[in-house]
Design goal:
The chain has 88 residues and is mostly helical. It has a domain at 5-52: BFD-like [2Fe-2S]-binding domain (Arc Repressor Mutant, subunit A). It has four helices and two strands; from the N terminus they run ββαααα. A two-stranded antiparallel ribbon has the order 1-2. The structure holds FE2/S2 (inorganic) cluster. Residues 7-9, 37-44 line the site of FE2/S2 (inorganic) cluster. It holds the Pfam family Fer2_BFD. This is Bacterioferritin-associated ferredoxin. Belongs to the Bfd family.
Length: 88
């Protein structure tokens, strides 16, 4: 049997977390109440969140190629642009 430990502090496996989730645990706190996972060093909490489907963070995808923020200022020859040229 292949055991993937989620919480090494308490020896809690992925399968056990999933079983607690099937039994109604919806949050890492509820998993902790069921088996103590996440209540010592806390390094497993994110993994537990991921197993519960609450840790997933949608990747940021740009809406399009966009324009450089200062694109409209390029080539602008207003007083501020001239002032910057003179200061340089
Ligand atoms: S690994 Fe789970 S509390 Fe430390």
């Amino acid at each position: 049997m292949n055991r993937m430990y989620v919480c090494s502090c308490f020896g809690v496996t992925e399968q056990q977390v999933q079983q607690h989730a099937e039994n109604g645990a919806r949050t890492p706190r509820q998993i902790a109440s069921a088996c103590k996972a996440g209540t010592d060093c806390g390094s497993c909490v994110r993994r537990i969140q991921a197993l519960l489907g609450r840790g997933a963070c949608p990747r940021h995808t740009p809406s399009g190629p966009g324009e450089p923020v200062l694109a409209e200022l390029v080539g602008r020859q207003g007083p501020q642009a001239r002032g910057l040229d003179e200061a340089a």
